[in-house]
Amino acid sequence: MQKPLILIANDDGIRAKGLRALIEIAKPIGRVLVVAPEEGHSGESHAITTQTPLRLRRLREPDDDDDEVTMYACNGTPVDCVKLGMTHLLSSRPDLVLSGINHGSNASVSVIYSGTMAAAQEASLNGAPAIGFSLLDYSPDADFAPVQAIGGDLIRKALKLGLGSEVCLNVNVPALPLSEIKGVKLCRQANGTWVEGYEQRVDPYGGKYFWLSGRYINNEPDATDTDEWALSNGYVSVVPVQPDMTSYRELERLRREWL
Amino acid sequence: MQKPLILIANDDGIRAKGLRALIEIAKPIGRVLVVAPEEGHSGESHAITTQTPLRLRRLREPDDDDDEVTMYACNGTPVDCVKLGMTHLLSSRPDLVLSGINHGSNASVSVIYSGTMAAAQEASLNGAPAIGFSLLDYSPDADFAPVQAIGGDLIRKALKLGLGSEVCLNVNVPALPLSEIKGVKLCRQANGTWVEGYEQRVDPYGGKYFWLSGRYINNEPDATDTDEWALSNGYVSVVPVQPDMTSYRELERLRREWL
Lengths: 259, 259
Description:
The structure is a homodimer.
Chain A: E1 5-9, H1 17-26, E2 31-37, E3 56-58, E4 69-74, H2 78-89, E5 96-103, H3 115-125, E6 130-135, H4 145-161, E7 168-173, E8 183-186, E9 192-202, E10 208-218, H5 227-232, E11 235-241, H6 248-257
Parallel strand pairs in A: 1-2, 1-5, 2-4, 5-6, 6-7, 8-11
Antiparallel strand pairs in A: 3-4, 7-11, 9-10
């Protein structure tokens, strides 16, 4: 029997340490095709490229390319990478799509801004089981060993149980040594907000410009069934994510009140 | 009493005809601040800019700037425009945020790719009532008169009924003469997919590149409670959209089966 075919994408780019860590998790499970952005695309959400030409570049360095791992860099977004991988490079649907490992959290409302999770979601929209991984450490040199220790079992379990149509998993791992991680918790997405502002600066030519800065606020810190609670309490959080954004509660209310 | 303050953004850019049409809808309701991208940002979803400086340019042409309408162009994404408008340009929360009018549909799963709807959603995440408008006509010269005839009443009704916390409205209008539009329907987001491929070309220098192309498939054409059904049958569709992407059905099942 042929080994499963695994497509890997990310949003931190082809050179990110988190991508290399995810490849190491995937290699014992199957054959690996990587399609990742040339540069970092953090915060790029579900963006697709339609106005500029998309290009693919195959990596042929010995370290990047062996019998079991094929790597492509793409000048597009994380979602472009998944689309090109699934519809152009592969002739059949991959058995699994992995995204990440993201340098930084994608829990709570960050799922909406995340290129990592958009890549996973794009795969599940196209019928492949998909999992996005994130580590709560933004450093380029983050230690991914705990994710690597946990990731393989988590992937095998998810594949065994299967995932509902168009549902993917959002896996976040606290930045703790493996010995301090208490286990895996199935969660819902916490209600939270980014409270943000802009730092205004002046360039050497007198022009004003802005940098976004902000901090995350958990609007329900006591709710023990959320991803934010799990992560704050030493657990890996796993949230099943779907593309239906309808607010059914509001739909019901508006139907009663709209004349 | 001061007139309500309305922030307008879009994803087709500051010069789009749909933006001008939306300003005309908003002017009788309140004072208008426009912050729109310098260029078109279609399909940019909830992307935010963090790696390049953001800039704002005030438009001072007589046609673009009167007592009741102030216009800024921004080099960022639709979501950047809303963030800059709400946190930098305005000192208090706007009474309403409008986005669009998009040239083309944002019904069904397109809500995930849409910069127009991401802008509306960003506003509702920051506590403002928000509505995204789209017309099912991709042409730059689309006729927005039917949306203009319907838009004002729809906005007033939504403001009167209020919107739940973090919920915004996704309004799509069929490309029909006003006399053929049957009314407004409250809907859920249809389950649909973009079946896509890439057209491969070769540039004058021998390099390969790709253009995305695809067509939308409605996976539930007979479901009469969806936005796609409403639009195919001559109705304006209104879907309440929320940021919680948790699949509660999958969460329940996985909790039972995950050991």
